[in-house]
Amino acid sequence: MFGFITPTKSNLSKSEIEKYKAYYCGLCHELKKGYGKDGISVLSYDMVFLTLLLTDLYNVNISGGFERCVAKPLKEHKYITSQYSEYAADMQMLLSYYSELDKVTDKDEGADSKKLKALSSYMSRIEEKYPRQTKTLREGLSLLSKEEAEGQEDAVKMSYIFGSTLSEVFNPIENDFFSPHLLDLGTAIGRFTYLMDAFVDRKKDEKKGVYNPLVGFDDEHIEGMLMNAATDASVAFESLALDDNLAILRNIIYSGIWKNYDKEKKDD
Questions:
Q1: 23 exposed, middle or buried (CB, 10 Å; 0-12, 13-18, 19+)?
Q2: Is the confidence at residue 61, as pLDDT, over 80?
Q3: On the CB side of 145, how many CA atoms lie within 13 Å of its CA?
Q4: Which band of pLDDT confidence, cut at 50, 70 and 90, is reported for residue 106?
């Protein structure tokens, strides 16, 4: 369920695109520093959004530099990091572990037991560092799997389970002033992501006879559910005091998250 929280670059200025790329490279830098090749292998856009958000919201110092990497070996490129780049890298590993565990458990085509074993080697240290987030993810995803196994047909209920599970990832400081808004934002983005993932996979899953809560729903109903989650995300987002990265973050919230939906509709 990764890859939906991305910007629409055509609607960003050149400087905004460069800033986004630098934060993306900063997250990759932190993943490599903390987890080596295993970390780089799970890099996704979703946690770049979280890095941009938390760095701006808490107004923390940023640092960075220029470096070459495997993806860009010929020319040095800029990267930006903050304390929330490290946090986002840890959350990326945690989410990737549970995502891979789900694939292996369900015997999905893309399941990789070797990757799961590699990711599992980092879980004890992450759990010790972030017990609250780990516990919420473990229990929430367990409940989600149980409901899926029982063929739960209420797609909204399923999206709320996933949203509540993801919410604590967006809340790095427990009982902070911003916690209620961050939890609401994480829940809404989680709901949207779950529904969008189900929408994109709906036809494929229906052919294979695989569980998908949106099988049988018409496009108008699905769009309504997605719009409801996106609206709740925007309300929570606009309640946060943001400035430095506001334009990029708004681009993602109001446009970027819909790119997969637009592509899927166009391909129909």
A1: buried
A2: yes
A3: 14
A4: low
